[in-house]
Specification:
367 residues; alpha/beta; Quinone Oxidoreductase, Chain A, domain 1; Rossmann fold; seven-stranded mixed beta sheet; six-stranded parallel beta sheet; 12 helices; 30% helix; 25% strand; binds zinc ion; Alcohol dehydrogenase; zinc
Length: 367
């Protein structure tokens, strides 16, 4: 079938991308779902820093690639072997498929699915197939999702069904920002009620960590970010304190749980520095492969601290996403507050400029 989607043609093309247009919004071909796959009509997709990292070349991926990995939509058709999802079911897509059969999947959650991770690197679905083509050339899938499009074919192991009362923009954010930022607090740090939390880097994922920390009963929540606008927004969303990275380090600020959601080596150092003795530093930001940090091994040992890397929320999306939806439904997790603007698919290059400049927390494409 013919769909409309946002195809990245080159990683690392210099910006501003509104002018250089590395992403073509175009008509392309989508094959029917294969065995274990389904066709989804997208309703909303969030523009995340991990999309930007492919555009700016921080994370090089095979191109052409149809971007977008944080999305929500409805099942249109199921391929052979998919019996538990009906037409019309709303689903949240998530960005590393879980085959449920490999050693990593059987180990229970914290480690990423081995074939799922390999498929993401190759730009295919979990089966190894590519269902997208453009002018006769195969187009790669982004994280098994490729949600910046009117429709997507995805593996059953890339979706979680969600109730109809969850709006599409909220559903989309549950699939990456909330899953990642929330999982850092809930699953990786295992926050105890009353513990103090600091979040270093408050874009969409970091701000989701703030909201989940508050929802789970954190004692205080401090946001640390170099941008004054982001610090102000953190306070609006319920953080108790906002500091620049320099202020945080120089003032001796320290908390039991620290989440780094910035994806650069300096932010990671700051996060380690502001972790209290006995505390946990959780890193979820995706730094470039060349990035290196400098930390004190002695401080780590003598203060008996823990550093934890977390991806996909260190848990099971099929369990976590409905739990976050329940918190949203109870009024405890105002995910809609993370949406900084609604845009059209045609605005995608401009949206990358906005995200890169730190002017947007979560821009959501509506279809
Ligand atoms: Zn993301
Ligand atoms: Zn697996």
């Amino acid at each position: 079938m013919k769909i409309r989607g946002a195809v990245l043609q080159e990683c690392g093309r210099p910006g501003p991308w509104q002018q250089t247009q590395p992403i073509a919004v175009t008509e392309l071909d989508l094959d029917e779902p294969g065995s274990g796959e389904l066709l989804v009509q997208l309703e909303a997709a969030g523009v995340c820093h991990s999309d930007l990292s492919v555009v700016d070349g921080n994370r090089v991926r095979p191109v052409p690639m149809l971007l977008g990995h944080e999305a929500c939509g409805r099942v249109v058709r199921t391929g052979p072997g998919v019996t538990d999802l009906a037409e019309g079911q709303r689903v949240v897509l998530y960005f590393v498929p879980r085959c449920e059969e490999c050693d990593a999947c059987r180990a229970g959650g914290r480690v990423l699915c081995t074939p799922g991770w390999e498929a993401n690197g190759a730009g295919t679905l979990l089966s190894g197939a590519r269902r997208l083509s453009w002018n006769g050339e195969q187009v790669h899938h982004h994280c098994g999702v490729s949600g910046f499009a009117t429709h997507a074919v995805v593996d059953r192991h890339s979706v979680v069904p969600i109730a109809d009362d969850v709006p599409p923009d909220v559903g989309a954010l549950l699939g990456c920002a909330v899953l990642t930022g929330g999982g850092a607090v809930k699953n990786a740090a295992r926050l105890e009620p009353g513990e103090d939390v600091t979040v270093v880097g408050v874009g969409g994922v970091g701000m989701a960590a703030v909201l989940v920390a508050i929802a789970l009963g954190a004692g205080s929540v401090t946001v640390v970010d170099p941008l004054p606008d982001k610090r102000a927004r953190g306070l609006e969303l319920g953080a108790t304190r906002a500091l620049s990275p320099e202020e945080a380090v120089e003032s001796g600020h320290r908390t039991a749980v620290v989440v780094e959601a910035s994806g650069n080596a300096r932010a990671f150092e700051t996060a380690v520095e502001v972790t209290a003795p006995g505390g946990r530093t959780v890193s979820v930001g995706l730094a470039s492969p060349e990035a290196r940090s400098s930390i004190s091994p002695l401080a780590l040992v003598s203060e008996t601290r823990t550093i934890i890397g977390s991806f996909l929320g260190s848990g099971l999306p099929a369990q976590d996403i409905p739990q976050y939806a329940d918190l949203w439904r109870a009024g405890k997790l105002p995910v809609d507050q993370l949406v900084s603007g609604t845009i059209d698919l045609d605005d995608i290059n401009h949206a990358m400029d906005e995200l890169s400049a730190g002017r947007a927390m979560r821009q959501v494409i509506r279809f």
